[in-house]
C-alpha cells in the first residue's frame, strides 16, 4: 500500500509518498510561496532531486503539479494515480470531535469547518488540501490525522481552564494541545528503543521547534500538555510568548492603543525569542549572536530554556516521577547548548546528562549518563510516518465502510 501524506499550510504544502510494505519514503517534497509571483516545488526521490520555479496560483494547482511530477516520465516514481492507495492529511484542530484518525467524509469536512474558529491560521488550508485531493483523486480515500487527537486522553482537571464553566460548554474554551502526532511518534519509539511496554512508562516529550510544546504521557495516556486552546500557550517559542499574565492583554491594548487583531499578530509573529532578542527566531543565529556577546540573544535563550525546565519539573511532579525524557524537532534534535542548559542541575530529580553524547545532532541517541535514573534521548520526529501508519490502519479497519461511503458519495 502506498500512502500520499499531505500537509497543507496557508501558502505552502509538504508531501511524502510512502510505501507501507517497508515504510520507505518513495518521494517527498515541498511547495512554497503558493499564490506569489514565483513559487517553488522542491521534489526529491531515490534517484532524483529537482526544483521547479513557476507561478502556482493556489493549492489546486500545487497539488496538480505534484501529482504530475510523481507520474512524469523523467522524474516520476509511479506509473499512474492508481498507485496512490490512500491520502493521509495532517489536520491541525479537531476540537473535541475526534480522539483518533478518521476516514474523511462530507460530515467530517463539515465538522472541521466548525473548528476553523479554533484554528483560523491552520484549518482552512488543511480543508482546502482535503477538497482538492478529493477533486483530483476522486477514487482515492482520504484519512484525517489530527494534531489534537493524541491529547484527547487528558482528564478534565488538566484540560479545563479556571474560567466561567459556560465558556467551555458554549464556546469550547479548553486545553486541546498540539503536535500530537509528534509526541505520539517519539514516545512510542522511545518505549520501543528501551524495549519496554509503552503502557508501563512515564514519559515526558519535548517537541522544540519553531512552535514548541511538552507533553506528559503517563502509562500510555497524555495527562497534560503545554499548548492550550491555541498553540500560543506554554513554552516560549520562536515568535510566540507561551504562558503569560492574561492581564497584559487589556493593559497593553490601552497603553499602546492596539486593536485585538494587532495584539493577536504580536503574540503570533513578534513575541517569543524573536521578541526578546529583537534579532531572530532561529536558534542558530541566536546562539551565534550570544557567543559574540549579544546580551539579548543570550537572555532569549535563557528564558526559553528556563520555561522548558519548569515544565519538565511540573510534569515530574504530576506523574510522581519520569522514566524517559525525549527531545525532538529542530531545536530539540540539534541545539546542543540549549539541551545542556535545560538539563543542567537536575541531578536531584534523577537526570544526569552525558556531555559528550549530548554533542550529537539529529540522530536517535541516549544522552543521559549510565548513572542517570531517568533515560534521556534525542529522537528525531517523523510526523509523516505516523500519518501514513494511521491512514493505513484506518483503511484496513474501514474497508467495508469505505466501499459503502464511496458508493453513497457517487450516487
Ligand atoms: P517548525 O516545524 O515548527 O517550523 P522545526 O522543527 O523545523 O520547526 O525547527 C525549526 C527550528 O529549529 C529553527 O528555527 C531553528 O531555531 C532550530 N534549528 C534547526 N537546526 C538547528 C541547529 N543545527 N542548531 C540549533 N537550532 C537549530
Quick description:
The chain is α/β, with parallel strands linked by helices and 411 residues long. 39% of the residues lie in helices and 19% in strands. Adenosine-5'-diphosphate binds next to α10 and α12.
Description of the structure:
This protein has two domains: 145 residues, Nucleotidyltransferase, domain 5; 185 residues, ATPase, nucleotide binding domain (Nucleotidyltransferase, domain 5). A hairpin with a 4-residue loop joins strand 1 and strand 2. By secondary structure, the chain is α/β, with parallel strands linked by helices. It is built from 15 helices and 14 strands. The protein is globular, with a radius of gyration of 22 Å. The model has no long low-confidence stretch (mean pLDDT 94). Helix content is 39%, strand content 19%. The structure holds adenosine-5'-diphosphate (ADP). The site of adenosine-5'-diphosphate has 14 residues, from helix 10 and helix 12. Its main location: cytoplasm. Homodimer. GO terms for molecular function: acetate kinase activity; ATP binding; magnesium ion binding.
Amino acid at each position: 500500500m502506498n500512502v500520499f501524506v499531505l500537509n497543507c499550510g496557508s501558502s505552502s504544502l509538504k508531501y511524502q509518498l510512502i510505501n507501507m510494505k517497508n515504510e520507505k519514503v518513495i518521494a517527498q517534497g515541498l511547495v512554497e510561496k503558493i499564490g506569489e509571483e514565483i513559487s517553488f516545488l522542491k521534489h526529491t526521490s531515490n534517484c532524483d532531486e529537482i526544483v521547479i520555479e513557476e507561478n502556482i496560483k493556489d493549492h489546486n494547482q500545487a497539488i496538480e503539479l505534484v501529482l504530475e511530477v510523481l507520474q512524469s516520465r523523467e522524474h516520476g516514481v509511479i506509473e499512474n494515480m492508481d498507485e496512490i492507495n490512500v491520502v493521509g492529511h495532517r489536520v491541525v484542530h479537531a476540537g473535541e470531535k475526534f480522539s483518533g484518525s478518521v476516514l474523511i467524509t462530507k460530515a467530517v469536512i463539515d465538522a472541521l469547518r466548525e473548528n476553523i474558529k479554533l484554528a483560523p491560521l491552520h484549518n482552512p488550508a488543511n480543508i482546502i488540501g482535503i477538497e482538492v485531493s478529493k477533486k483530483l483523486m476522486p477514487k482515492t480515500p482520504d484519512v484525517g490525522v489530527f494534531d489534537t487527537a493524541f491529547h484527547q486522553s487528558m482528564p478534565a482537571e488538566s484540560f479545563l481552564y479556571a474560567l466561567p464553566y459556560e465558556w467551555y460548554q458554549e464556546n469550547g474554551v479548553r486545553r486541546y494541545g498540539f503536535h500530537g502526532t509528534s509526541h505520539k511518534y517519539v514516545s512510542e519509539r522511545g518505549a520501543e528503543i528501551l524495549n519496554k511496554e509503552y503502557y508501563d512508562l512515564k514519559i515526558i516529550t519535548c517537541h522544540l521547534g519553531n512552535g514548541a510544546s511538552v507533553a506528559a504521557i503517563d502509562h500510555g495516556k497524555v495527562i497534560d500538555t503545554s499548548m492550550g486552546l491555541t498553540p500560543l500557550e506554554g513554552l516560549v517559542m520562536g515568535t510566540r510568548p507561551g504562558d503569560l499574565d492574561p492581564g497584559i492583554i487589556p493593559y497593553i491594548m490601552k497603553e499602546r492603543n492596539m486593536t485585538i487583531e494587532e495584539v493577536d499578530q504580536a503574540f503570533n509573529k513578534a513575541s517569543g525569542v524573536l521578541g526578546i532578542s529583537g534579532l531572530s527566531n532561529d536558534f542558530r543565529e541566536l546562539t551565534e549572536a550570544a557567543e559574540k556577546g549579544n546580551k539579548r540573544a543570550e537572555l532569549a535563550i535563557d528564558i526559553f530554556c528556563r520555561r522548558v525546565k519548569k515544565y519538565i519539573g511540573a510534569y515530574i511532579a504530576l506523574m510522581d516521577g519520569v522514566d524517559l525524557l525525549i527531545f525532538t524537532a529542530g531545536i530539540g534534535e540539534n541545539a546542543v547548548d540549549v539541551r545542556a542548559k535545560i538539563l543542567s542541575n537536575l541531578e536531584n530529580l534523577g537526570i544526569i546528562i552525558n556531555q559528550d553524547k549530548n554533542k550529537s545532532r539529529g540522530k536517535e541517541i541516549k544522552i543521559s549518563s549510565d548513572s542517570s535514573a531517568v533515560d534521556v534521548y534525542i529522537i528525531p520526529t517523523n510526523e509523516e510516518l505516523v500519518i501514513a501508519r494511521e491512514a493505513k490502519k484506518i483503511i484496513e479497519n474501514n474497508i467495508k465502510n469505505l466501499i459503502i461511503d464511496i458508493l453513497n458519495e457517487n450516487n
